[in-house]
Amino acid sequence: MTRFEPAGDAFLAASHAVSRRDSAAERGEAMPDYITIYPANADLIFLPYLKDYQPSKNDFKAIVEDRRTDRRYDTNDHLSLQQLSWFLWSTQGVTSYSIHRGITTRNVPSAGSRHPFETYLLINRVADLKAGLYHYVPQEHAIYLVNDSQEMIHAINASTFDQKQVITASVNFIWVAEVYRTSWRYQERAYRYLFIDAGHVCQNLYLAAESEGNAVCAIGAYKDDEANQALGLDGHEKFVIYMASVGKPLSD
Ligand SMILES: Cc1cc2nc3c(=O)[nH]c(=O)nc-3n(C[C@H](O)[C@H](O)[C@H](O)COP(=O)(O)O)c2cc1C
Fold it and tell me: Which of 52, 56, 95, 210 has the most CB atoms around its CB within 10 Å?
């Protein structure tokens, strides 16, 4: 009896670090997009400026120690735009960029600073926003509505095996990986980096939420094909890599 999964073992073997000589970057292939591409006619909603903002809880040690997963949310509570702004800034906010190197730096680390994620928000209750699927544009610190159909909302929830917190959360974060942003430089090794990068992003969401009296539930149990289909992704070059619900926890 072996105590490893052959499919997982094959993934490890197939993603061993290799020489980068054959990477698309080394071959001189055009750099992939490193900022978010969005429709020219998108109605951008610019998020509140955070320069003078302080989260309601500022004790870093307490934030780290108090963070817990919570799946039961107060459905009377609405997240403010300021809180949403803070959560997006903490998870994917752009702090600098280099057009020459084709990279951004953000509030989370990323292998080679490739930052291969797009952030989608399934919003249920955020003040002044209608419910629906939104897309974050980090370089503008803005979001725009992609789709507010009930079918799409149901399809995303169904893809998570109908996990109830997706419906009761104020907002769900859905992170989509764009593989080539990282594989352009790291080939097959990129696939490991994607999942490691995603962990950093979700941890920052946990901490930012805790600092505003909200709680997160990371969601890794979802049907890939259904989630990708709901968002119109091909499942190869672009796919859902991780989700997380956020809401004000119900007091016990
Ligand atoms: C990668 C990952 C995937 C997870 N997927 C789910 C999930 O699909 N549904 C869920 O209810 N909780 C999920 N969780 C939450 C864990 O169950 C939770 O983190 C764990 O019980 C430890 O609790 P704590 O976060 O409060 O320390 C996930 C957590 C991680 C890190």
Answer: 210
Nearest CA to ligand 1 atom 14: 218
What's the Rg (C-alpha) of the chain?
A: 18
**Ligand 1 cavity residues, CB under 6 Å:** 68-69, 71, 163, 217-221
Model confidence, pTM: 0.98
Q: Do 93 and 106 meet the contact criterion of CB atoms below 8 Å apart?
A: yes
Quick one: 36 exposed, middle or buried, by C-beta within 10 A (0-12, 13-18, 19+)? buried
Ligand 1 atom 3: residue of nearest CA: 220
153 burial level (CB within 10 Å; 0-12, 13-18, 19+): buried
Measure the CA–CA gap between 130 and 148, rounded to whole angstroms: 8
Nearest CA to ligand 1 atom 9: 219
**Where does the pLDDT of residue 247 fall: very low under 50, low under 70, confident under 90, or very high at 90 and above?**
very high
pLDDT at 17: 83
Report pLDDT digits (tens) over 106-127.
999 999 999 999 999 999 999 9
Q: What spacing in Å lies between the alpha carbon of 236 and ligand 1's midpoint?
A: 25
For residue 237, the CA-to-ligand 1 centroid distance in Å is 26
What class, spelled out in words, does domain 56-247 have in CATH?
alpha beta
What are the distances in angstroms from CA 30 to CA 90, 102, 114? Answer: 30, 10, 14
* Residue-range domain boundaries for the chain: 56-247
